[in-house]
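Task 17 of the worksheet. Students: predict the tertiary structure of the chain below and write it out as structure tokens. Keep your answer in the requested format; marks are given for formatting as well as content.
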Amino acid sequence: MDFTYSEEQQMMADSLRRFVDTEYAFDRRRRRSREGGAFDRAVWSTLGELGVLGLTIDADHGGFGEGPASRLVVQRELGRGLVLEPVISSAVVAAAVIGRYASDAQKQQWLPALAGSEKIVSVAYLDVIHATARRQ
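Model answer:
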């Protein structure tokens, strides 16, 4: 099996490595972590500009329609940089659920906004959230 990056994957890896090395330095991560682990909206926007957030979203919905191999490239570089932003939960898991199960209207509403960094989405999949709906 050939694990060599395609030209596009290598460009993405290089871009993310530069970003992590120059704009997501260790001191910044440490400061963010000490502030309660909150992620940085500016970093989230940059990840959108770099194409990370729309990587696996279909092109019809503002993304690039890439598969697992490209996702691995991104996750490797983000992991190397200990990036705190919720890329996996939002741009991978939630985007996949919306892309697979949402109505066309919901896809049009959420996927372009997710790919463009305007929205952050998370899937509540454990029975830890209890909600009650009441008609008023």
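Marker's comment: The CA atoms of residues 38 and 128 lie 21 Å apart. The domain at 7-115 is CATH 1.10.540.10 (Butyryl-Coa Dehydrogenase, subunit A; domain 1).
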